[in-house]
Write a structure and sequence with these properties.
Blueprint: H1 6-20, H2 28-35, H3 61-66, E1 74-78, H4 86-100, E2 105-110, H5 113-127, H6 132-140, E3 142-143, E4 147-149, E5 155-160, H7 164-168, E6 174-178, H8 188-193, E7 202-207, H9 221-227
Parallel strand pairs: 1-7, 2-5, 2-6, 6-7
Antiparallel strand pairs: 3-4, 4-5
Helix pairs in contact: 2-4
Length: 261
């Protein structure tokens, strides 16, 4: 988590909440438990076909709360694969924003164009059916090639790592950066530049480390960004280890103790 200087934030907090009517009592995971049901979208990419339950991934609670905390400017999540990082900090937060306090624009940025376009269709578009509110918004929305216009409330734009649109395009109050360790030549500052003039920017970046790159942990983008935050850690017990032990995961080449052989 990275916070902006207090002097630049707090004079606007009350005004922001009054303009956007943010419900203080419902953060994204609480809203999701009341509104999202994976049984609503038959072809959505999820094995779970029931109501949203944060109890399956309780370590995501604080992360998702941080994603909508006005005192927090950036959230970087370094997690294992299939750990719910795209579905929860990104997609569930995106749906919460659209349902409760839509910004004028949001951007989802991934690695490769083909994968981003597949994600757009299979997860972003289809996922709007998971709640009644977002499903109704989607009925009135205009879907173009890489943009969804939610009837003038919000423009949702998708992009990918080497697309010049995200580097030289419009400003975005909210940017979701997915699997940043797979981006060629990832530079977080490129995303920050798109938010330089926004009073309340929110940059949410998630990724697994990329062992196939054969680089050390100190060179992996998501680890670098996480190390520049306040480094909150959420541990899961090792089912094969002794009581109190946790997983330890490090990257390295063939010449290191922990590297892939």
């Amino acid at each position: 988590i990275r916070r902006p200087p207090r002097s630049t934030l707090f004079p606007y907090t009350t005004l922001f909440r009054s303009l956007f009517k943010i419900p203080d009592d419902l953060n994204p995971w609480q809203w999701a438990e009341r509104n999202i049901d994976y049984g609503r979208a038959k072809h959505y990419d999820s094995d779970w076909k029931g109501p949203y339950q944060i109890s399956y991934l309780p370590y995501l609670k604080e992360i998702m709360e941080s994603c909508v905390d006005l005192t927090i400017k950036e959230v970087w999540v370094w997690a294992c694969t299939r750990g719910g990082k795209s579905e929860n900090p990104i997609l569930t937060t995106m749906r919460w924003m659209l349902a409760t306090c839509p910004p004028y624009a949001m951007a989802y940025v991934g690695g490769q164009q083909t994968k981003v376009e597949q994600f757009f269709e299979k997860r972003i578009i289809r996922g709007m059916a998971l709640s009644e509110v977002t499903a109704n918004l989607m009925k009135r929305a205009k879907v173009r090639e890489h943009t969804v216009d939610f009837d003038g409330l919000c423009d949702l734009v998708i992009s990918w790592a080497n697309n010049k649109q995200i580097a030289k395009g419009d400003s975005y109050p909210v940017i979701f950066a997915d699997e940043v360790s797979s981006w060629p030549g990832f530079k977080a500052d490129t995303l920050r530049e798109r938010q330089a003039t926004v009073p309340f920017p929110k940059l949410i970046g998630v990724s697994s480390a990329d062992p196939e790159s054969r680089r050390g942990s100190d060179e992996d983008p998501i680890i670098q960004e996480w190390e520049n935050t306040d480094r909150r850690e959420y541990m899961m017990p090792d089912p094969a280890g002794k009581k109190g032990e946790t997983f330890l995961f490090r990257l390295g080449g063939v010449e290191t103790v922990d590297g892939i052989k």
